[in-house]
Amino acid sequence: MVLPLQAAEVLDVRLWRAPDHTRVVFDLSEPVPHSLLELDNPRRLVVDMPDVRLVEALTDLPIENTPIDRVRSGVRQGNDLRIVFDLAEQIRPKSFPLAPNERTGHRLVLDLFDVSSDREQLQDVKSVEQLSDRRDIVVAIDAGHGGEDPGALGPKKLQEKKVVLAIARKLEARLRDTPGLKPIMIRDGDYYVSLRGRRDLARKHQADLFVSIHADAFRQASANGASVYALSTKGASSTAAKYLADRENAADLVGGVRLSDKDDVLAGVLADLSMTATLDTSLSLGARVLEEIDDIAKLHKRKVEQAGFAVLKSPDIPSILVETGFISNPDEANRLNSAAYQDKMARAIHAGIEVWFKSHPPAGTLLAWQRSQQGGGQQYVIARGDTLSEIAARYRVSVKSLQETNGISGSTIRIGQILTIPDA
Predict the structure, then answer these.
(1) 229 and 138 belong to one structural domain
(2) Is residue 367 part of a domain?
C-alpha cells in the first residue's frame, strides 16, 4: 500500500509595511514552487502554490496603510493553494525563497513595491552653492534589523530590533533639537532594510555620518558591556569582532541580498581603495562616542574595535556601529528594555557626535561658519616624531584642551593629521 505524500504547509503569514513597499512573508514547512499572476479590472495579484495547505486563515493581517484591500485564499485543482491580494493601488511585485536560518524555517518572501515611490526616490544632488550655504550636518541613524529579522533575542524573547529602534528614535529627537545637526532615520518602523539599502539611503540623503545602533549577543550570558565599531579593511581586530561582523552580515540573507555577488565584490574592492580618510574620521569620532558611553555604561572594550561590517562599507561616509549592550545578558537586557537607560544611551551617542562635529565641522556647514566666527584657532600638521605633549608645550596650551578641541582620545596621533590649536 502506498501512503499519500504529506502536502507542504503554509504555517504562518506575516506582513510589514516599509516606506516604499509592503513585505509579505510565508513561513513554510518545506520549500515550495510558486507563481505570480497580475490581473486588472479589478486589480489583483495572485500567488499559486501547488500541493500546499494553508494551516491558518488569513485574518488579522495589518493591511492598513498598504496597497492591499483584502487577502483571500482558496483551493483549486485538488490540493493547489491560491492566495489572492485585492489591490487598491498599482504595485510592482517581486518574490524570492529563503532558506532556513537559526530562527526560522523555509520562507517565501513577496515584496509589493509602490510604483509611485520609484519616482519619489529620485532626488536632485545638491549644488555647490546649496552645500556651502551654512547647511546642517546630516546624521543617518540606522536602527539595526527590523521586520522579519528580529536580531538577537534576550530573556523573555526581548527583541533587538525593538530595543535599538527605541534608542534610535530618542537619538533622533536629541539631534533634531541641536542647531546645525539634522537626523535622518534609515528605518522608522518595524520593517526590514537590506544592508546595502541602508548605505544607499544614507547616500541618498547625502549624510555626513552613518550611525548603526545594535544590541550585542553572545553564547555565554556573562558577556557584557557596550562597544563601538568602525570598519576594518584588513580584517577583524579581534576574534569577537569577527564573530559579531559575521553574525550581522548574515542578515542580508534575510533580505535576499547575496554578499558574494560579484558586483558587490568589485564594489567592495573599489571602495576599500578610497576608504582611508573616511575610516580615520570613523575611528576618531567613534572614540569620542565611546568616551561618552563610558560615563553611563560598562564598556566591553575600551577602544574602538574594527571588523568587516557590510553596513559600514560606505567609502565616502564616516560610519560607526554602536553595540549598546549585551541583550543576551539578563542584567543588561533589563537595562536595554528600560526607557531610562535607552535615553541615557541616546544622550551619550548624541554628546559624542555633537562634540566631535563642533571640533571638526565639514566645510559649508552652520557649525563650520560658527567656528570661523569664533576664530577657530590656528592649525598644525603632524610631522614625524611629534607628540601631543610637545605640541601642547610649543603652543602653551594643555594636552587636555588639545585633545578636546580635536576629538582625540588618548595620545595617538598620525603623520599628516591636522590639529586645530585652541586659544591659550
Answers:
(1) yes
(2) no
Torsion of CA 187, 191, 197, 203, to 10 degrees: -10
Cα distance between residue 65 and residue 20, in whole Å: 11
Q: Would you say the C-alpha torsion 389, 393, 395, 398 has a positive or negative sign?
A: positive
215 and 160 Cβ atoms separated by less than 8 Å = yes
pLDDT in tens, 220-276: 999 999 999 998 867 666 655 665 666 666 555 433 333 344 344 444 444 444 466
User: Model confidence over 285-301: pLDDT tens digits?
Assistant: 999 999 999 999 999 98
On whether residue 203 sits in a domain, the answer given is yes
What CATH number does the domain containing 228 carry? 3.40.630.40
Strands 227-231, 305-307: pairing is parallel
How much of the chain exceeds pLDDT 90, in percent? 52
Q: What is the CATH number of the domain that holds 401?
A: 3.10.350.10
The interaxial angle of helices 399-406 and 388-395, nearest 10 deg, is 110
Sequence letter at residue 71 = V
CA gap 313, 317 in Å, rounded:
9
Residue 103, CA distances (Å) to 149, 272, 289, 301 in order: 9, 33, 32, 28
Task: Give the separation between CA 97 and CA 72, rounded to whole angstroms.
Answer: 21
Q: Residue 236 has what pLDDT? A: 60
User: Are 27 and 72 in contact, with CB atoms under 8 Å apart?
Assistant: no
